[in-house]
Amino acid sequence: MSARERRQVASDAGLSKERVVAEAVRLADREGVGELSMRRLARALGAGAMSLYYYVASKEELLDAMIDVVFEEIELPPEETDWQSAMRRRAVSARQVLARHPWAIGLMESRTSPGPANLRHREAVTACLRRAGFPVLTATHANWLLDSYVYGFALQEASLPFDTADEFADMAEDVFLPQLPVDEFPYLNESAAALVAAGFDPAEEFIFGLNLVLAALEPLRVPT
User: Which PANTHER family does the protein's record reference (predicted)?
Assistant: First the structure.
């Protein structure tokens, strides 16, 4: 089929690049990126697989566009506040976005043809750190450290067998504690019991760790 014929088929199906990418993101959110194929995507769109290649030339180009959608959803660090507050807001936003799109965690740093939202995001983060007084190389170190923390936490959070503090408490009491006899695992037993009694919410761990990372970076900047 010629490019013109593919274009006509795509037009007849009501396709656009935005619609193709949006449906791909929805499929990945629901089924995982490993289940995504051009044929599977075409079926979901009610179109022929070949018609999709008018909008994305390959699976890799589709993944580039999907990751760009994810970056577009992450809040940029605001310019009107101090660097720690700005980077905290950006990190919190990134964690929330990756919770919606867990398939993206392992792809965020893998793209060699980044899209415009990806590049805008990285420019804004670097600008925030540089304006705060971090030298060029130190800003790079800080960026890597913050991203590693956010991605690592998001990956761990996505694999947890519970979602809420109540679910954690139920699992700790019904599943974890029975496996932790106090004579064999005194410290683990003590920790599990104390967390349940305190109403521990695992989601709060993100801010605790993030604040430590930001505080550790503060002495490395050279205020202007």
Answer: HTH-TYPE TRANSCRIPTIONAL REGULATOR RUTR, TRANSCRIPTIONAL REGULATORY PROTEIN
Whole-number Å distance between alpha carbons of 56 and 62: 6
78, 129 contact by CB (below 8 A): no
φ, ψ of residue 133 in degrees (nearest 5): 105, 10
Reading the block at residue 109, the tokens are 């740093």
Specify the pTM. 0.87
Contacts of 201 (CB under 8 A, 6+ apart): 164, 165, 168
- Comparing CA positions, the residue from 21, 35, 36 lying closest to residue 71 is 21
pLDDT tens for each residue of 105-146: 999 999 999 999 999 999 999 999 999 999 999 999 999 999
